Batch of 3 targets.
Target 1
Amino acid sequence: MSQRNLTLLTDLYELTMMQGYFKEKDANETVIFDAFYRTNPGGNGYAICAGLEQVIEYIKDLHFEEDDVDYLRSTGLFGEDFLEYLRHFKFSGDIYAIPEGTVVFPREPLVKVIAPIMEAQLVETALLNIINHQSLIATKAARVVYAAGGDGVMEFGLRRAQGPDAGIYGARAAMIAGCIGTSNVLCGKMFGVPVKGTHAHSWIMSFPDELTAFRTYARLYPSACILLVDTYDTLKSGVPNAIKVFQEMKEAKIPLTFYGIRLDSGDLAYLSKKAKKMLDDAGFPDAVISASNDLDESLINSLKIQGAAINSWGVGTNLITSKDCPSFGGVYKLAAILDKKSGKFVPKIKLSENAEKITNPGNKCIKRIYSRETGKIIADLICLEGEKYDENNSLLLFDPIETWKKTHLAPNTYHLRDLMVPVFKDGKCVYESPAVMDIQAYCKKELDTLWDESRRLVNPHEVHVDLSNELWHMKNQLLDSYHFSE
Amino acid sequence: MSQRNLTLLTDLYELTMMQGYFKEKDANETVIFDAFYRTNPGGNGYAICAGLEQVIEYIKDLHFEEDDVDYLRSTGLFGEDFLEYLRHFKFSGDIYAIPEGTVVFPREPLVKVIAPIMEAQLVETALLNIINHQSLIATKAARVVYAAGGDGVMEFGLRRAQGPDAGIYGARAAMIAGCIGTSNVLCGKMFGVPVKGTHAHSWIMSFPDELTAFRTYARLYPSACILLVDTYDTLKSGVPNAIKVFQEMKEAKIPLTFYGIRLDSGDLAYLSKKAKKMLDDAGFPDAVISASNDLDESLINSLKIQGAAINSWGVGTNLITSKDCPSFGGVYKLAAILDKKSGKFVPKIKLSENAEKITNPGNKCIKRIYSRETGKIIADLICLEGEKYDENNSLLLFDPIETWKKTHLAPNTYHLRDLMVPVFKDGKCVYESPAVMDIQAYCKKELDTLWDESRRLVNPHEVHVDLSNELWHMKNQLLDSYHFSE
């Protein structure tokens, strides 16, 4: 991503607003924006946040080149003083964020930007674009991996991804959420993740017959010999020819370490069971039976229930586009403006007739509350920065809408963790992104902090995200202060 | 796109197959691959093909840099002889394609690659990725623009797009299909398309009150003054304040050329009608009433039926992700292999139990048949390269599956057009991509060649794509040649 200048990857209104702040306000007014989302995608019980590394690269690289300025001038919307300001633009603010691979819930700030208003405004669009995309795909991949129940899931979607970045960063997100490999070679190179794949129908078709194609492939790649068996007829041609080749390998004393077949069409339940029996009968009970073809978590789930003899899953289109829910509704909302006189943040709120769309004001942080006994998440608490909590005291949680719903945590039964970490301080990056495979290991542990009831694919139990007493009162005071006459 | 080296943007199996061809076959064997799709996305009656310019850039730029070769070596899959070959790799083949913005139908080759098998194989994944994405979004945008019935549609989806490229090239595709502008500044710079936008809720919230925010905006941008009226209360605060500002502008003799309001939440039918009445009553009947908020073609259609007083549409998430159908199922299939002895292409076919998945073999071209009387498309005919047609003769068309369904075109009542044009010859680009706004103008004419029955949003009439007599017989001979014993 860093090879491209993405500074203009923004909505025009960010720039027209910036010029407005520049001309009409104290352009250095410090504000707080929160990036958060309102609903878990695809009916899931949580999301996996992802994309922070690319947000960091984007922020680090922010600068208007001469041809960017020339282009903006050509729109006729911008004055020379503002364009001159852009020429020297760099990000000078603070950013806090939840690390990639963390399990997150609706209404929690995933990223908090504290910066001069012009800077905070500019970064909105690209920041949302990146976080929305990768969090969407990571969440979808977590569902698919969950459905596969321990079998390996490979990400195969590049050709159906919504452009090159969707393929590259979608595969990155899928790896974070637990895929064992991707077909995407560029993603493998960029992020050091395993790349996987064997051959296509065209390989088979380019030889005079299927058996010759299989034999040739086995000779070339004996240690990862997965043969695609459905080019002509899976059970009458593909599987028998594959077995013939495995027998030849056995006779030639070639070690059959990782070998098997791939099914890419037809009734996968039926074909896999038939193929499994043929492979077993021929003395190849440990052959991998890999399946692909428009799979998703529901289909994998259904195939498992049907007893399909598949132990490796290649998932393409439905994962890389998050087909049933192709967008993650992340938004970026103003939460506070610094009052220079008092040095304090004045909270800001966005009203809506829909209670769920009313924003949480102020300078916030998130405390995750774990049970000391089980290590599982009890709830998340959105607080105001600076609130003090002591695990030796009891803690009262209450639902922010239905406030009579209360939970009382006894002292020393829970553990608190701050979810957001500093990423930029005064425009300088203070965070080092972990390697993708390390994020994957972290994400696996994160998923273990959820009860299985919150991980199930349908109607998961919703983890509570509560507001601290202080934040709740601030929010309600602000709400009460708005009145419009009938 | 050309700033990045996308040569490794491919599935691993393309490279393992390439090495297989390199080591085991005549690596210079010339083959033909067709890129086509099987079903129009989202229940539409056609698709708009798009992305060719980016495919051309990708093909032109294909080369393995030293660090690509190093990375491939590190996988342990590739031999030094093959890696040395890659170091000197460049595309040397021919490519034919249907120009961007053309109305296309299922099973028609959108791109045809005639090249040495190794080269043709490598480019599969990126070519499909690019064409699938842009054709998907162009088709979706054509539906949205159709629903808007002449009102302007603006593309506002960058923040919800699946990564930066999805935002940039998605906006490009949306422009091709008739959007009047995009919020995406980088797309505007890269492709010379109009950029649009005004301000967000954060602009309003950053001022002490809404009226001050509106006044400031109107002072800054008097000639494109669309005020966002739903931050606090649309009808009690937003619209009255907007009217106050328009009145002040009028009194100050500032010309109200392009001005109005934007609704971004609530019941758009109700609010727009109420707002329209308030604006009319105040003497502003020509104010633009713009709407956004999770719009798509169905919702726009419904709002129009309800008599919503909206005349400008900002469409984001649902367009940029093609939410109801986020993938375009383009595939890339081997169609023929050149027999060196005879100098003739030997047709190849991929079988499937599903008749629709059986490929069309041979070196093909597409003739579009127009009615001379109406200028509308009668049908498309997939033929073999070299077949001769004469408009002075009659033409018999028949359904390739239900062959008794026949249509007889009388001499000189129809007009034939070859859809595919040469794009690369011997590795050299021979095609110049038009500017995006020129493609938009072409696309508008293309859409006019469809009967309205094929453009409607639900259950459109399907345009026939037939096979020539010669191709039909070749295909059936090939099918008959495969037999697998029970």
Target 2
Amino acid sequence: MLNIGLLGCGRIGQVHARSVGQLDGVRVTAVADAMPDAANALASKIGADVREASALITSADVDAVVIGTPTDTHYDLIHQAAAAGKAIFCEKPVDMSADRIRDCQTAVTEAGVAFLTAFNRRFDPNFANLQQRLRAGEIGDVEIVSILSRDPSPPPISYIKTSGGLFRDMMIHDFDMARFLLAEEPVQVFAVGSALVDPAIGEAGDVDTAAVTLTTASGKICQISNSRRATYGYDQRVEVHGSKGMLRAANMLENTVEVAGTTGFQTAPAQHFFLERYEAAYRNEMARFVEAVQTGNTPSPSIDDGLRAQMLADAAAKSLETGAPVAL
Amino acid sequence: MLNIGLLGCGRIGQVHARSVGQLDGVRVTAVADAMPDAANALASKIGADVREASALITSADVDAVVIGTPTDTHYDLIHQAAAAGKAIFCEKPVDMSADRIRDCQTAVTEAGVAFLTAFNRRFDPNFANLQQRLRAGEIGDVEIVSILSRDPSPPPISYIKTSGGLFRDMMIHDFDMARFLLAEEPVQVFAVGSALVDPAIGEAGDVDTAAVTLTTASGKICQISNSRRATYGYDQRVEVHGSKGMLRAANMLENTVEVAGTTGFQTAPAQHFFLERYEAAYRNEMARFVEAVQTGNTPSPSIDDGLRAQMLADAAAKSLETGAPVAL
Amino acid sequence: MLNIGLLGCGRIGQVHARSVGQLDGVRVTAVADAMPDAANALASKIGADVREASALITSADVDAVVIGTPTDTHYDLIHQAAAAGKAIFCEKPVDMSADRIRDCQTAVTEAGVAFLTAFNRRFDPNFANLQQRLRAGEIGDVEIVSILSRDPSPPPISYIKTSGGLFRDMMIHDFDMARFLLAEEPVQVFAVGSALVDPAIGEAGDVDTAAVTLTTASGKICQISNSRRATYGYDQRVEVHGSKGMLRAANMLENTVEVAGTTGFQTAPAQHFFLERYEAAYRNEMARFVEAVQTGNTPSPSIDDGLRAQMLADAAAKSLETGAPVAL
Amino acid sequence: MLNIGLLGCGRIGQVHARSVGQLDGVRVTAVADAMPDAANALASKIGADVREASALITSADVDAVVIGTPTDTHYDLIHQAAAAGKAIFCEKPVDMSADRIRDCQTAVTEAGVAFLTAFNRRFDPNFANLQQRLRAGEIGDVEIVSILSRDPSPPPISYIKTSGGLFRDMMIHDFDMARFLLAEEPVQVFAVGSALVDPAIGEAGDVDTAAVTLTTASGKICQISNSRRATYGYDQRVEVHGSKGMLRAANMLENTVEVAGTTGFQTAPAQHFFLERYEAAYRNEMARFVEAVQTGNTPSPSIDDGLRAQMLADAAAKSLETGAPVAL
């Protein structure tokens, strides 16, 4: 039995608690949250203890921690958990600063603890299937990767102001997906962006509509587009062109029903947002973390993957600011 | 150069004239129609002579006749053309009476002239592709055939009264398609039907909504459904299940555009009716007739195919009337 | 908290136990199975007691029973549970004999206990969505219903011999779906069938490929087809034509990935079988049962629904035997 | 009757001759080609005279010229035709040099003759339908346009060497499509590209795989990708995201047949190349030219559209060369 200590009892912490509940051989023994009510509510629902974060991390009945607290707390929690020799499952982004992620990486490496950066989309059954087939050579060598992500609606302006901006908060998933699919590091980033959805986002110094072009040393190309708005559900698509063909993963719709009438044939919207769309991905990512810890294998994506996605986000932000491509 | 005499200058005659115009090595030299205006209009458009039907049939500059006149005139025209030794392309149905079709068959056989029964759907690129792959064994042995045909809207009641009824006028295409796909003669027909679209159709003694089940000696099953109404365009689909898989042909839509919004994803309606949907089929059927006549091969579908489809329609009408399955 | 006693710990009993585990306000307190090992295994996994069936039914800590035992035991268990005043969730078919179902119906009605016949497909998110929209009038009045069910592969011959045959064991789901969608009782059943998948099924007196036509008093038509074989996954589709358009529910595929190459565009097979395809349906049907019991509402589908589906299956079997349509 | 003089009897000239043949009120009276055999073959097929180009242009029985000769001859022919007061239908690109296109523009404007730049894709029924709905506001304000074009296989290296490169020869269609859909001029172009399909293309100084990002003054974004290879047919797609939703045009497949088997569901490849895919577009573009000339309306796309697409291609080539975005 693997004993999990859950740090952060908000929405994402609850998702991870539910994933643990559906797996054999693992349980949440203790939870922590700066908000006592949140900690108590989750603890009573799943039969876990409530502890203060630092105490939880050093508890003997905690083998691994799941970090789902605000991003600015990750740094300290990772250092504490590494020092305590606990395996670490950490929400993305690891930190807003690449340098601070490097510090965490050092701490984790020196402590020799397992670490998984929770890029959930790698575990989506559709994207995972696509990537496995890509790696197996089904469409030959990768030439162009196209990634599109559109949220159903923008977050509150208050969130925008502290999120680090669209590239670090939203497109970071796509940067990780790009690396996952390209299997070669990007060497150049070019970004454009605008505030077309809500002028207030522009006034807050961010963009809500953006496109990025990545290139690799061997000439592979990746096009990414993001928007904070999609009226037809959470739009999450990937398309990869290779020397022998194309692989793409379409959206998951709310249901398979189609209606036909005078205006044509209509299917349901895409599943609304990440909790629905990535339900299986969240379950799979926890399963793979648990499996890695139990078998002694190295979890993936690693803290290095977390660092490299952050570096791409930083480069995109710089490209947008300077108007020029940024070399990595 | 193959010289065609066109009998009937109405809508379907004009379709065939256009098909001839798009083919090399063939031309329409003369046309005939009981309505002089119709004959003159088409003749001047395509540069052909206008003649009286009997004279046209025996003309030296007519190698083959295309019969697109009202059904009750086919019998005489076929006999005249056979007597004159002309190749015959005849619209379906050959005749309303199976016995009279047998008479025609005798005349055609004795004269040794080429004869094609114009079941246009066999030449639709989709259905033709499906049937070729079926014959090539792509899904193994046929087990269940499902055919669905729905017209966009019912014809005038005046047409209903003289058409021979839904089974002989509309479903006859599906009976031919069933034989084309089953590759084994049906031995039993069971039909049900109702007047759900327009009560006046029921008062005229016909049905506008019907379903038929065919079975063959080896146990293959075919389900057909027809309706005189489809709000979303001309619905024309075929699905075949075999021992190794399934082949189906979907509708052709007006275009490939899809719009996404709050209610989901919407594509265009199906192409409106037979002139659009079967444009390529009409062209291909004429090309195949011309090719057969020019090479001396036997055209297909034959007059026997025309007879057998009519026998199935008769059996379906009898089944509907008696409420019992009819053996063939 | 609603306390459930689970009768039958085989595959379907385990499915229901899992559904209960995912719902709030309900738990399994006791389980029973003729096989002690099966009962013990499930009990230890979910923290329930093991009891003998009759004792379980009369237990004070059991408010409702879930009957997932072999069909021939349903009759006695239903009578016992009704006598004990317990709410009853019963797997389909309620019984192989319509007369015995009527006996059960009397017992249940006289005891005034809640009863749900577990036709799981009514709770599939796709079919449920389609039926709600149909009832809401989205496509006007129903005219033709088409239902297709194909299992990935046939069950063992030993099962075939005791299952009551394809109409009572497999197509019974489609008969219930037909009633669910037609919203009008069929008055006539016509069936055809063959043993095309495996001759041994024919030797066992059953068919593995079948088609049924239902008609209602107002002239609505339903076409059903079944096969024990589908190489591309569990094929489960419904299509309804109404006066204003068409509603259909497509298969759920294993994933949304599509690959393109020289032979075209390929998507994944359909989800393999009922445990995957109807995972959400099983969860929803238990949720609706629990909700009905807790609120005092009448669960649906009722025991009468179970009876009427069985009557349609009996009629289909008789039609196949006699070769004639059977009136209801 | 509008009399056309056809300049150039190669593949594209034959396409335009066929389009003219399918239209009422227009005919080809004379053809010219540097290759006498090509001119004679086409002339005899369509019943036209063969003339030398300059003589053809000044012929009294020529109202309009269709220019389908090699690009480097366009400049002189346009000047001659403008001087002769003939309406001009000119294949793209108008010229390889933007300055020379400006010269042509001056000549055409001063002569006051009608001029259509033959960007055939604007007349594709799918893209035309999409653009009309976009203009009608169906998805609100345009935010992101995504255009993908992939040829089935690369042209000969000899062609690559004289074509002006991928941006001027292939992506020029997409630049025009971008302008057609954005309805606002791009102000910046950023291009990346590689030779991944064939190293010989790289050695010839060109790329075969490329991606371009366009931005407009109001912040609209357009992503274009091109490749000289697509194993699954000619890939031609457009997707537009607006404030209220998304419009996209999918590929046209060879047929609507789908086969299902153990590996899933497979449809046909996309139509092979431009002659099949844009058959309707070629017919429509000629019809619109003829209609404009006959009614005295200004044809579209104009010579200015030809110029602006060329300027975008030049900017893309410069961006690729310099590695930096290029302002317009």
Target 3
Amino acid sequence: MAAERLVVIGGDAAGMSAASQARRLKGPDEMSIVAFERGHFTSYSACGVPYWVGGDVEGPDALVARTPEEHRDHAIDLRMRTEVTGIDVAGQRVRALDRESGETYWTGFDKMVIATGARPVRPELPGMDAPGVHGVQTLDDGQALLETLERTTGRRAVVVGAGYIGVEMAEAMLKRGYEVTVLNRGARPMATLDPDMGRLVHEAMDGLGITTVNGASVTRILTGDDGRVSGVATDDATYPADVVVLGIGVEPETGLARAAGLPTGPNGGLLTDLTMRVRGHHNIWAGGDCVEVLDLVAGRTRHIALGTHANKHGQVIGSNVGGGYGTFPGVVGTAVSKVCDLEIGRTGLREKDAAAVGLRYVTATIESTGRAGYYPGARPMTVKMIAEYRTGRLLGVQIVGREGAAKRVDVAAVALTAGMTVEAMTALDLGYAPPFSPVWDPVLVAARKAVAVVRAAGSA
Amino acid sequence: MAAERLVVIGGDAAGMSAASQARRLKGPDEMSIVAFERGHFTSYSACGVPYWVGGDVEGPDALVARTPEEHRDHAIDLRMRTEVTGIDVAGQRVRALDRESGETYWTGFDKMVIATGARPVRPELPGMDAPGVHGVQTLDDGQALLETLERTTGRRAVVVGAGYIGVEMAEAMLKRGYEVTVLNRGARPMATLDPDMGRLVHEAMDGLGITTVNGASVTRILTGDDGRVSGVATDDATYPADVVVLGIGVEPETGLARAAGLPTGPNGGLLTDLTMRVRGHHNIWAGGDCVEVLDLVAGRTRHIALGTHANKHGQVIGSNVGGGYGTFPGVVGTAVSKVCDLEIGRTGLREKDAAAVGLRYVTATIESTGRAGYYPGARPMTVKMIAEYRTGRLLGVQIVGREGAAKRVDVAAVALTAGMTVEAMTALDLGYAPPFSPVWDPVLVAARKAVAVVRAAGSA
């Protein structure tokens, strides 16, 4: 019997995790695996780019979890710098373009994995392509930005966007000695938080010496006589800049899949079932930043570009492709980040997410510390908890604070997954010792307050 | 109508939390509250004593959450230095001894809360009462130890016991510049861990310069010509000591309650229902270190002396005493600690706990890091996971490592509470960003390995 042929499109986390897991389950005599990657790197941590730029991490090699050679050692026919330019679903083949040779060819598949990732949102504005304007989506992007920074003598950096990438890049540029201005379209930085919690991030960024301009709608990139970037214009002001970093977010890269007739959802990502199989296609799987995932709290799909999900998807896909079994049940929307020593964690629904799916809710916000108040290094943290009206079911948690703030949302992430009420959470047996927590962990304090608010609201 | 009368025995976490919560629900015209405390302090953090001794914390005031005066301001009739010496259950009265005046009197109650705490295990050995031998159970103990340290010129400290108090006191004495020897009766330090994980703690303590002697059974305390402690003798050796710290653990202080005919369990603690009402007694509640609590994983009661539980008990008792409603459903056995930069976390059952209740289990142990491997400060941690044979239900987690190790058990604590399987845990949406976690959080890596072990064992 001829070996089954698996084609993988995309050589980063989801694609190569799938390929590797499939290979663990099926040897080369049972399955041949061809993987296409259009860039220079495989299996790398894009999330590490801000820390590479900021000088915390040696790059780019340190950010590569597995090199092309290592994948080839596992009998994966990895074709670097080769872009898939067409999918023929009915004919079970893909068209590949070798970017080095310019050659185009078709390759057949029995099974296929689509892991084409996401692309940065790059608004079509005048000057956007000027030297000195950089995205930070890939290792290639990071390399290009670092080359610019080496050549640039000016010290003014403008970061466009105040989400995860934006605030992390603000920290990175600050660490490199730049004067940093963040231009944020929204009313508060970190739109993944409610505005009241975003305000805390804004204040902390102020304290770190990062200027954040809210409500700033970028209209054009200004250039100097040399054609290089010289500033950023918004609706109502101009910000001089020696370098501009774009951190506006990403959208699923699904042009290829859509052209092939594969189904996408309301957020532009491919739609799959819980085994990560593309809906309606028995032999095609998709995972990573190009898919939509089920939000277990909201009960609908979302697009979340995050390496940890991509790795899980790859693992699940590889198991299923290789004849095993795995599912990705969905997400609760956990994310953590930091700006210097400010930590930010969130999971579940924001107020507006709850309202958007028709959930009535109450909120409770408390201040506590990450260690016993008397223990050295105890620093404040603010915990906001959102619970369903009447039932008291946990809907979301947001935490902004210093050491120990971000990862505390993990407790809430598990509670959300388990469908716990805030009242049940007050009895959680969380680790206590003075260096690690007050006697009531901040999450428990928030749960206690939420219980009181739920009761008061329910009896009103 | 005359006000109802509540008597509280014990002025620390459980007792005073109960009194305070009852007072919130019932004003002085509805309920009079009399609380007895035999010592000098109320509502203090005994867990903070090692850090006070180690010089991290200013004591003792910083360790007091609420002073007697503050309690009195809330209309609680607090009688300090007054010991309850008898309970007359049928007569609904207690006998109190004022230690200052020597006066004894009886006081009636409609409702009573017993929060008598725990007492340190103090083996009856020759020399145990010699000057220079100290327990560290109360603020008074801490004060006495510090006075000894001020007077002592020698630099050799022997700590008896290698549980939480023992290892924390080893750190404290090391920080004060002592040469520290820990005498441990067991085969490994930290008997709340399995021996394979305890070995990691032992190695780390070695690395910190703390000498740990396992299998050391103390036979006597040696004294010098001045009557002060001069060393500790075990079965097979003698350890010179200028100061000896006892950290052998505690047992429930229930003599008074037992004498009154109240029910105690197999571990010597008072037995209550889930509202913390003493079994068989409609108007008596008990909480804190003097009760047994339900272990939700093992399905039987245990004795765990921990401030966080005591506070929860007090909250629940106060609600019920005050006419509200609250329950303490039980514990999963979470505990965290540290020795210098070594962090230790555990929750759920050890191997021997599982075996003791007849559960068949498998184990999986992995090594990972607390941050992305490439991120500065990424330090190793070892995670051991115990899962039920066949079902894969999580039974316990132990973590030993550096920064971020201890509180990671909280995720497992919630998963245990929710009855999750290790397979369900592999899909948990835990926070990921390079400064906070590898792309697979160590708990997820352990869960993945545990799934493989469960499958292999189940098909064998």
